[in-house]
Amino acid sequence: MSLHGQLTLNNLPAAFVNRMRKQLSDVSDFLEALQSVSPVSVRLNPAKLPFPETPFFSGRPMSEVDWCRHAYYLEQRPVFTLDPCLHAGGYYVQEASSMFLDVILQQVLPQHPVRVLDLCAAPGGKSTLLSSALPAGSLLVANEVIRTRASVLKENLIKWGADNVVVTQNDPAHFSCLRNCFDLVLVDAPCSGEGMFRKDEKSVSEWSERNLQLCSERQQRILKDVWHTLKPGGYLIYSTCTYNPGENEEILQWLLERYEARSVDVSHFLGDSLFHTPHGYQFYPHKIKGEGFFIGVVQKLEEEEDAPRAKKEKKVSVRLPEELRNLLPHEKEFSVYNAENVLGVIPAPHAEFISLLDKHLNVLYKGCELAEINGRKFKMQPALALYRYLDKTQVVCKDCDTESALRYLKKEDISTEAPAGSWVLITHNSIGLGWGKSLGSRLNNYYPKEWRIRMSTE
Description:
Elements: H1 14-23, H2 27-34, E1 40-44, E2 62-64, E3 71-74, H3 84-87, E4 91-93, H4 101-108, E5 115-118, H5 125-133, E6 139-143, H6 147-160, E7 165-168, E8 182-188, H7 201-205, H8 209-226, E9 230-240, H9 249-258, E10 261-264, E11 275-277, E12 280-283, E13 293-300, H10 322-325, E14 334-339, E15 342-347, H11 351-360, E16 363-366, E17 368-374, E18 377-380, H12 382-386, E19 396-399, H13 402-409, E20 423-428, E21 431-438, E22 443-445
Helix pairs in contact: 4-5
């Protein structure tokens, strides 16, 4: 990297440059783009922040990302950590090219509820997009094999505020027993990361032709592990952040030769901005305002198979205390669970399937956790404060300005006028951040220690 952190041609592997010279007729424009500053983009949470009218975004020049709903470019990268709305799940900072997933979902998703697997989901950009884009009544299983990254995925999905999500931490091979279970599977495959060269110095230093081959072999193994989880007629969306054809269109060609499937041509409105390969779309930074990215779709055409069913077990009836029941919308159809004295809710139509996931997978989180019960007392859970369907009229709220909200997010004390002993929902711009419990003149801060802001907010 240069002294200013930007990529220079001298940093690039010679073998990579030579391959790109063969791959692109306008390679000089491509190499010049790699030396420019990466664009900054965010995607708003339509359930929490439908318009960019928060104090943090006020006055910042913004322009729409053409291929994704609720998505915007910022002219400069602010310090996002200092915006409470980010911590509240009001928006997600996501690379713009990867948001093209929204175009594909609009064309392949039906109107009725579906079950979707996001196999390599951390840190959560595509999972949060999926959670918002899926038809009402759908279920998303978001998985990550690496434990530390799975924890970040769980945090980001909790902050997004949905209850239609199950978070798992499993190897792709663990899903092989779930045959014919998903209407759509997204595999954002681990790759050589060429598309991240101008953003990530490590991806440049780790690049090698041997690694390209190892990535290709791993991608084939992952697809073999999860192919049979897809229902006949269902769609597999495959993506990478690399330019290497051996990890992109050649992988999808391998898949089509191995299984009964067809490549799906997704129409788009970007003209010559996208490079249309035989099985997908390649984003290049000199043609589009974004990083390097590849995405393609195939549809499974194999015969119908019987899907596994959870063993019928006698249900243990769990009822919510009235104090919690009053916080939830009456029109939602919930199934209540009790996991180690933590009460939560999951979508009732998917309760049997989630039971199957509990049996076969390492489930880290499901639905929305509401409160930890200890006798007749209960401790509000962070997810309930961030839940998009929480009825805020039924709780004591304290709407904080930016300074007070940041103190709360650093797990510092803030003042309150709430009656002693009452639970208080801390909000910013009316969006929930977390809970506090009134001690009379101040709040006992219940923000999760592992989520707290550690950087200086001065």
